[in-house]
Write a structure and sequence with these properties.
CATH class: Alpha Beta
Order of helices and strands: EHHEHEHEHHEEH
Helix content: 40-55%
Number of helices: 7
Strand order of the largest sheet: 3-4-2-1-5-6
Number of strands: 6
Distance between the termini: 27 Å
Oligomer: single chain
CATH topology: Undecaprenyl pyrophosphate synthetase
Shape: globular
Largest sheet: 6 strands, parallel
Strand content: 5-15%
CATH superfamily: Decaprenyl diphosphate synthase-like
Radius of gyration: 19 Å
Length: 241
């Protein structure tokens, strides 16, 4: 099956959904499912490396998720901290760069400090960029870019310079994903068919793939099916071919 996949996307993004439902179906609390989902992350990272995918982004925690019960949120932050600590040697061994994108002002101080440390030590790694979207939302990202543009205009006015012309390239460069190519493929697990306020600007021409598989059950063969689907699509970006 894998030998037939000739068109490997540069950037794959995954909305990791279904941890809670998976745990409940087995009679456990939601955190049990989140913990199980870590193994799926490891499998996805390994598969991305094997296939030569250059960027893998994972939607781990949205801004809206802060509205969940305190116990679950606290457990998720602890889980993220443990995962970064445990996988630190893996990043070095396999030349993986870690990047965290999201509203860091809402994250625990110890997690932010850890993330900044690991980001700095992996910044030159180049086999795979692993991008964790944490406390992220598409609308937040766009608003942040708009605020940056407003500051640019204010600075230009104060210095007597022309207002920078706002086009798509300039705005894209003001997003928190600056320097990361738009996702070629977004995969969402658990059967939900929406993007849930995720990469709203960046996903304008992204191919979408939805699977019924719950995230803790997602493994390489499921990832392979998504790539196979992508491989069979013709991307025209609004043009004729």
């Amino acid at each position: 099956m894998t030998s037939e996949i000739t068109n490997i996307p540069t950037h794959v993004s995954i909305i990791m959904d279904g941890n809670g439902r998976w745990a409940c179906s087995k009679g456990h609390d939601r955190l049990f499912g989140h913990n199980a989902g870590v193994e799926s992350v490891k499998a996805a990272v390994e598969y991305a490396r094997e296939k030569g995918i250059r960027y893998l982004s994972l939607f781990a925690f949205s801004e809206e998720n802060w509205g969940r019960p305190d116990e679950e949120v606290s457990g998720l932050m602890d889980l993220m901290t443990k995962a970064v600590v445990n996988e630190r040697p893996t990043f070095a061994k396999y030349d993986i760069r870690l990047r965290i994108i999201g509203n860091r002002e809402q994250l625990p101080d110890d997690l932010v400090a850890l993330v900044e440390e690991v980001e700095a030590e992996t910044i030159s790694n180049s086999s795979l960029d692993l991008i964790i979207m944490l406390s992220y939302s598409g609308r937040w990202d766009i608003l942040e870019a708009a605020r940056r543009y407003g500051k640019m205009c204010a600075n230009a006015t104060n210095e007597g310079l022309p207002i920078p012309f706002l086009d798509q390239d300039l705005f894209t460069g003001l997003l928190n994903t600056d320097g990361i190519p738009d996702p070629d493929l977004i995969i969402r697990t658990s059967g939900e068919q929406r993007i849930s306020n995720y990469m709203l600007w960046q996903a304008a021409y992204t191919e979408l793939y939805f699977t019924e598989v719950l995230w803790p059950d997602f493994r390489k063969n499921d990832f392979d099916k998504a790539l196979e689907s992508f491989n069979n699509r013709q991307r025209r970006f609004g043009k004729l071919k």
